[in-house]
Amino acid sequence: xxxxxxRAISFPGAIARSEAALPLGLLAPxxxxxxxxxxxxxxxxxxxxxxxxxxxxGLDAYQRMFNDIAFVDSFRNTILLLIAIVPIQVxxxxxxxxxxxxxxxxxxxxxxxxxxxxxxxxxxxxxxWLSIFTxxxxxxxxxxxxxxxxxxxxxxxxENLQWTFIxxxxxxxxxxxxxxxxxxxxxxxxIPREYFEAAELFGASRLRRTFExxxxxxxxxxxxxxxxxxxxxFNAFAVVLALAGRQLPVLGYEAYDWYYNNRNENVAAAFxxxxxxxxxxxTIVYLRLLRVRESELVR
Length: 299
Hints:
CATH class of the largest domain: Mainly Alpha
CATH topology of the largest domain: MetI-like fold
Oligomer: single chain
Radius of gyration: 25 Å
Largest sheet: none
Distance between the termini: 53 Å
Structural class: mainly alpha
């Protein structure tokens, strides 16, 4: 057999090997990024949470975390913020995504304006809303000027924690709803418009089209949006710090406090590990409740 014939025979095998290696090559940068900047630091934090002061392994850090005077309050406040923020943001984002998807005049400008908070950091957003909710802030100034209230309301006082909680929910909703909006809008644009036209042709109302056409086909995007927003809610820190400080403790702030103020990285790592476990648990729940079967995709 000549050299040219052997090359012709081996050429298809080389192509097959290169095609098989192409997906791995495309995934390699992402895998390296996740491994170096996420997986390795997470593993180090988990190991650090099980270390004692003398370098041995134990549960001392978790005992101190559970015995911390602010642990119960921080855990409760984190869960309450999660319950309040995520449904509000998903509902607002879905309503605005449907509105933009209807392509009303000026929908592009509306999208750009509402996406502005994505470019603002958490702390900057907290400071913006601090200037609104303080005793001499914009909200009290406007309400007093209109004669709606006679005296300024102390929204961020320790005596009015319910107002402080509402202020944090409003600030977080303003800051991060745009992220959920972008995800849901991208999912809506993947739904063929023929489905909407067919539902409208058969006389389905807008509400019925939303529940029977949009939401079932939007489940993958809803799943992604819920997971990402829940992760951010568990890690709420800067906005809470700017508006409430220690008046409304959350798990993220307690981790920061133990690391920066108390100089105890083991207990801080224990708080971080707890946040990780809670995030993974809720993510699994979302994946089970909103999973899409292949038969549903084909249909």
